[in-house]
């Protein structure tokens, strides 16, 4: 590294240290239970992201129309839990697995392009992007970074993956749904006794990334107005949500509660399939309307939650689908194993 680059890096490190110190001062003054605390953390994380410099934007891939049969790729990137620590998982492992998810997506898209025009990518950021430090007792001893550092790391890691993927598509649409680990303050699940449910760390991560890359010519962000989003791709409609609203497990079997909830929702919401995270284990569950509920695992391996609550081994994976927008159905589906 040249002397000039060393000086520039030292200046960035100094600026980041000052930002952290300012955050601590702001947090110490935020004694009232109000949105001031969240705004202080958001502003500090936002400023820290700006210190790292503007993102490098690669010119998007030109649309291909050589084959005449269009498909759209859907990447369900969920439960990254950046900041969590298990015997085989930490922030460095999370970053490597996010990068591997992007690389496997690009490889499978290149294979699918031999038979189809695939110019559009839909990314579902399914919640629990960070682990945070106040979700459950003793959590502070099961993380490798503070909540503030987790926000900054998650924004950096996920932004890089999105920009990397965007170089291969003429259009990328990012949908965000909040998770229970994004909850701010005391309470259970995604509900908080201190803040309204719309105040959520996952939203803040998305907002930071969205503002940094808002000038990208091919990326569009769709932020949630509620706990779910309806994704429309031509004739295909999908429900996307985190999954933490499902608590009725009937005999301890998560699949029962998942199916029961979606069977009810589909009677008044317009969707064929649903994309869910939260349960840290892969499932594909049929519904009476002919659609399916796709449950995507997390990035975390050796998850105590999956072993104790869902009785699963929690192999890390994400989900990639290809959709025919004219026929309104999934044509190919992959679990991207990351272990």
Structural summary, described in words:
The chain is α/β, with parallel strands linked by helices and 339 residues long. It has two domains: 3-51; 70-337, Purple Acid Phosphatase, chain A, domain 2 (4-Layer Sandwich). The protein is 35% helix and 20% strand. Strand 5 (228-233) and strand 6 (236-241) form a beta hairpin. The model has no long low-confidence stretch (mean pLDDT 84).
Overall pLDDT: 84
Shape: globular
CATH class of the largest domain reads Alpha Beta
Q: Strand order within the widest sheet?
A: 4-3-2-1-10-11
By helix and strand content, what is the structural category?
Answer: alpha/beta
How does CATH name the architecture of the largest domain? 4-Layer Sandwich
Please give the domain count: 2
- Tell me the helix content: 25-40%
DSSP summary: helix tally: 7
Query: Could you list the spans in which at least 5 consecutive residues all have pLDDT below 50?
Result: none
Q: State the end-to-end CA separation.
A: 34 Å
Please write out the topology:
Blueprint lengths: L2 H27 L5 H17 L18 E8 L13 H22 L4 E9 L21 H20 L4 E6 L24 H12 L6 E4 L5 E6 L2 E6 L12 H12 L7 E4 L6 E4 L5 E4 L8 H7 L6 E8 L4 E9 L2
Parallel strand pairs: 1-2, 2-3, 3-4, 6-7, 7-9
Antiparallel strand pairs: 1-10, 5-6, 8-9, 10-11
Structural descriptors:
single chain, about 350 residues, alpha/beta, Purple Acid Phosphatase, chain A, domain 2, 2 domains, 6-stranded mixed β-sheet, 5-stranded mixed β-sheet, 7 helices, 11 strands, about 35% helix, about 20% strand
